[in-house]
Amino acid sequence: MAMSTALWSFALVVGLLTLTPGLDTALILRTAALGRRTRAWGVVLGIQTGTVLWGALTSLGVTALLTASHLAYEILRWAGAAYLLWMAARMIRDTFRGQDGAHEEVQVTAGTDTLAGGWRQGTLSNLLNPKMGVFYVAVLPQFIPADAPHFSMGLLLTGVHLMLGLIWSTVLIASASALGTWLRKPRARRILDRVTGTVIGAFALRLAVSD
């Protein structure tokens, strides 16, 4: 496989993956819709940090442990499910509080509009998802030409994924910001947080029961 063919083919695969609604989309949209653009970009950078780490570890062969070791996969799977369930529960619970900033969550799930807080949230949600590691183990090597340096080509392909993710995240943040005035109304915020919390909780449960 030629390098240009590998790059375009991989871009098509991860492009479809990026456009598929999922946990990352829910986190970015929810954060941006509440007017926290700085935090939303922190979430984006955190997600992409996780993507780069998964790509680098796969290129080094480390993430093969997830498929070779049932225990390693199970530990990461349950840690990820617990974190997502905790995030979802806090998000939904706070919508029933009749306090000022009722939808402001504690630091890891939310409130302050800081880049660092969003980065931590995005990084944790990505790295605690073992399916990202399994995806990279299963897919990335197929697009590395036999005569190409494995690590360098792996990072190049990961860079393609990162670039597409940033472009799509920009679209998501711009779209959410356009509806920001309406979505920041108390009733709309409650609905948004309950829907997002439910989506995140569903992902957590699916991760917990998946094989």
Mean pLDDT: 80
Number of domains: 1
Structural class estimated from helices and strands: mainly alpha
Return residue spans where pLDDT drops below 50 for at least 5 consecutive residues: 99-110
Q: How many β strands by DSSP?
A: 0
End-to-end Cα distance: 32 Å
Tell me about the largest β-sheet.
none
Helix coverage percent of residues? over 70%
Radius of gyration (CA) equals 18 Å
Report what the structure shows.
One of its GO terms (molecular function) is amino acid transmembrane transporter activity. InterPro entries: LeuE-type (IPR001123). The chain is an all-alpha fold. It has one domain (3-14, 38-209). It has 10 helices and no strands. Helix 2 (23-33) packs antiparallel against helix 3, helix 2 packs parallel to helix 8 and helix 3 runs antiparallel to helix 8. It is globular and about 60 Å long.
Keywords:
single chain, 211 residues, mainly alpha, 10 helices, 77% helix, 0% strand, globular
Q: How are the SSEs placed, and which strands pair?
A:
Blueprint: H1 3-19, H2 23-33, H3 37-60, H4 64-68, H5 70-94, H6 115-127, H7 130-139, H8 150-178, H9 180-183, H10 186-209
Helix pairs in contact: 1-8, 2-3, 2-8, 2-10, 3-6, 3-7, 3-8, 5-10
Short description:
The chain is mostly helical and 211 residues long. 77% of the residues lie in helices and 0% in strands. The relative contact order is 0.22.
